[in-house]
Each structure stands twice: as C-alpha cells, then as structure tokens.
Amino acid sequence: MAIQFENKESKSKFTASVRKKLVDLLDEKAAKLKLNRSDAVESAIELWLQRIAEEEEENYYAAAAAEMNEEAKAWNATTTASALRNLK
After folding, report:
1. Which tens digit of pLDDT belongs to each residue from 20-76?
2. Is residue 45 part of a domain?
3. At what angle do helices 37-87 and 20-32 cross, to 10 degrees?
4. Residues with Cβ < 8 Å from 35, sequence gap 6 or more?
5. How far apart, in whole angstroms, are the C-alpha atoms of residue 32 and residue 40?
6. Alpha helix segments (H runs only) across the chain
7. Range of the structural domain that residue 36 is part of
C-alpha cells in the first residue's frame, strides 16, 4: 500500500539533525511502503501539522464551551435572583 503523491508543486530542501535510530526506522518503514525518504518525511510533517491544527481546534472549542458555561451560570444566577425577588 504505497502512498501516492499527486501534488506536483515545487519542493524545498532543508536540513534537519535527527537521531540515527530514528532515521534508520524511517528508512525501514519507508522501504516497506515503497516511499523514498523525502516522501516519508513530507507525509510525517503533514500528519504532524494536521495533529497540531486539530489540537488547536479542540482547545478553541474547549475554551468556548467553558466560556459559555460561565455565561450560563451567570445568567442562571441572574434569573434565579430575579425570580426570588418576584416571589417576595
């Protein structure tokens, strides 16, 4: 099951210092998938960026939910106090 890269956009070269064992594992897995090292690294970077974007989205929604809960608590307190005043 080889990953096919259809995108023909231009590529940039960069240098990264990576542990030898990690490079050996990368080469081993890439060979099994019939990928070259560059395609394997590109795929890994895309997956990492996707994971970061998903984490940012989860954090955004968690913060929004917390804010809505606080607003709901404040509104509940206001309406409860109002209702209690009206009962007197």
Report:
1. 999 999 999 999 999 999 999 999 999 999 999 999 999 999 988 888 888 888 888
2. yes
3. 100
4. 2, 3, 43
5. 11
6. 20-32, 37-87
7. 20-87
